[in-house]
Amino acid sequence: MSLYPGDPGVIGALMLNLVRLQPGEAIYLSAGNLHAYLSGVGVEIMANSDNVLRGGCTPKHVDVPELLRVLDFRCGPIGLVPAATTDGVESVYPTPTEEFRLSRFQLRPGVSARPVRRGPEILLCTEGSARLSAGGESLVLPRGASVFVSAADGAYSLEGEGVVYRATAGL
User: Fold this and answer.
1) Which residues pair with 27 in a beta bridge?
2) For 44-60, how does the pLDDT look when each residue is reduced to its tens digit (9 = 90+)?
3) Which of the following is catalytic: 20, 54, 69, 131?
4) Is 54 a catalytic residue?
């Protein structure tokens, strides 16, 4: 409370579900779900929107009436979204949305991933490192690095030892 004195969002946090995720696990939250991260690294992807609302614990504007209007107050457990392995290297997190698709590459030495292109992509390396190769050029992605791959770019391959997340259109 010392970080945000007088902020009622501190009390609101006590009413949230506590969900502990292990590396590689995922959940899907539809619009209207208040959420926060307490520790660790999370990959969050959402549909294009200009209406992110904050619920507190921030120096930014909090529109309480609008927040109360759009929040989903249903309670209950939050189910994990099991990743479906497509080729032994890439695992896809299926969601009910068409706007985006999130997948995870578990890269191992001697194994090359050649993803099927679905449009523009963002690749994020969260563990180890990866080499992105396309058209005779390559780019090393160390842990914490990301790269945008445009829809006009051709096929590419990934290799290395680490974990790379791919965000792309759901189509």
Assistant:
1) 80
2) 988 877 677 888 777 88
3) 54
4) yes
